[in-house]
């Protein structure tokens, strides 16, 4: 851990700032100076220090943030990508479209309450919904391991079809690749989705302000704990099932109800904390007294 993130560093910063009585008029208090230094540290360009990719880089937390902003954003930099929201909002033909993609490598492939198939459809539908769009079409790509049971693949495809019908979307294109035995964990799924923005809304982390209310659509952690139980990683018994579901209807109802919603998000599998950390890093300026109270809704 770097000295900038330790308690000792914070204490030293306060001590170096000196007592309040010794400050010149107009200077920040020692506590405010520490907070300012923390904010400056957060605004620095992330730098990847590892020489090889680790599992942490895909967990949705700080390592993922560093990888995405320090490597991919630097390589592909453009204003749309820099927003780093769940979907990109694009202008086309006089209207606005939302476009997103996601990859699913969940293990086990089948778990209480769902499987990798409906998880992929619901996740992509929700990423479109939280951008303010009505989901329309999906693409599905499959990376299959040699020897994977056809019956399991049929089960996954059927699950995706059912989930897509429930969400009112269609899978209209796709791709399939097969890798050698032992080179994949059975089946990986990538989905991309496109939707249309029919409301004059602009959602995103840049709209978050201190004091905004946070609305959560349901219990936090049901899906993650269900997966851990299915893997045998927890030495407990619980009647939990994954709460995977398409929430575009819920989000649409929220957007039609006052007060205005400023940001919606789908937390990563790592849970709520990575989302809240990302929001703090990318929040805008403090709110004014005349500004509507925005709400952040993580399905």
List the helices and strands and how they pair.
Elements: H1 7-17, H2 30-43, H3 62-76, H4 79-82, E1 88-92, E2 95-104, E3 110-111, E4 114-115, H5 116-129, E5 134-145, H6 150-167, E6 170-179, E7 187-196, E8 213-214, H7 222-231, H8 248-255, E9 263-264, H9 272-282, E10 295-297
Parallel strand pairs: 5-6, 8-10, 9-10
Antiparallel strand pairs: 1-2, 2-7, 3-4, 5-7
Helix pairs in contact: 1-2, 5-6, 5-8
Number of domains: 4
CATH architecture of the largest domain: 2-Layer Sandwich
Largest sheet: 5 strands, mixed
CATH topology of the largest domain: 60s Ribosomal Protein L30, Chain: A
The helicity comes to 25-40%
Please identify the oligomeric state.
Answer: single chain
The rounded Rg comes to 22 Å
- Report the CATH superfamily of the largest domain: PurM-like, N-terminal domain
Let me know the number of strands: 10
Distance between the termini: 32 Å
| Total number of helices | 9
- Based on secondary structure, the structural category is alpha/beta
Offer a concise description of the structure:
35% of the residues lie in helices and 19% in strands. It contains nine helices and ten strands.
Please tell me about this protein's structure:
It is a single chain. With 299 residues, the chain is α/β, with parallel strands linked by helices. It has four domains: 41 residues, no CATH class; 31 residues, no CATH class; 111 residues, 2-Layer Sandwich (60s Ribosomal Protein L30, Chain: A); 93 residues, no CATH class. The protein is built from nine helices and ten strands. Strands 1-2-7-5-6 form a five-stranded mixed beta sheet, with helices on one face. A three-stranded parallel beta sheet has the order 8-10-9, with no helix packed on it. Helix 1 crosses helix 2, helix 5 runs parallel beside helix 6 and helix 5 runs parallel beside helix 8. The two termini are 32 Å apart.
């Amino acid at each position: 851990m770097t000295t900038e993130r330790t308690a000792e560093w914070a204490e030293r910063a306060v001590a170096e700032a000196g007592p309040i009585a010794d400050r010149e008029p107009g200077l920040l208090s020692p506590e405010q100076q520490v907070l300012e230094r923390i904010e400056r540290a957060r605004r620095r360009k992330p730098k990847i220090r590892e020489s090889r990719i680790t599992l942490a880089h895909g967990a949705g937390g700080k390592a993922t943030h560093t990888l995405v902003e320090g490597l991919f954003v630097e390589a592909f930099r453009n204003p749309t990508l820099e927003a780093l929201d769940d979907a990109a909002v694009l202008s086309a033909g006089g209207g606005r479209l939302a476009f997103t993609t996601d990859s699913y490598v969940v293990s086990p492939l089948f778990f209480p309450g769902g499987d990798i198939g409906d998880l992929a459809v619901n996740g992509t539908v929700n990423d479109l919904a939280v951008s303010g769009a009505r989901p329309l079409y999906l693409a599905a790509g499959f990376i299959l391991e040699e020897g994977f049971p056809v019956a399991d693949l049929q089960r996954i495809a059927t699950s995706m079809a059912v989930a897509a019908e429930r969400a009112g979307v269609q899978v209209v294109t796709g791709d399939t690749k097969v890798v050698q035995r032992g080179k994949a964990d059975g089946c990986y799924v990538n989905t991309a989705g496109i939707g249309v923005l029919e409301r004059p809304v602009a959602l995103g982390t840049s709209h978050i302000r201190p004091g905004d209310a946070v609305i959560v659509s349901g219990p936090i952690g049901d899906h993650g704990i269900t997966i851990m139980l299915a893997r045998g990683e927890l030495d407990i018994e619980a009647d939990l099932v994954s709460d995977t579901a398409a929430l575009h209807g819920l989000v649409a109802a929220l957007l039609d109800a006052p007060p205005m919603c400023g940001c919606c998000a789908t937390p990563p599998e790592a849970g709520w904390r990575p989302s809240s950390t990302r929001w703090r890093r990318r929040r805008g300026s403090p709110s004014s007294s005349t500004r509507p109270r925005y709400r952040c809704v993580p399905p």
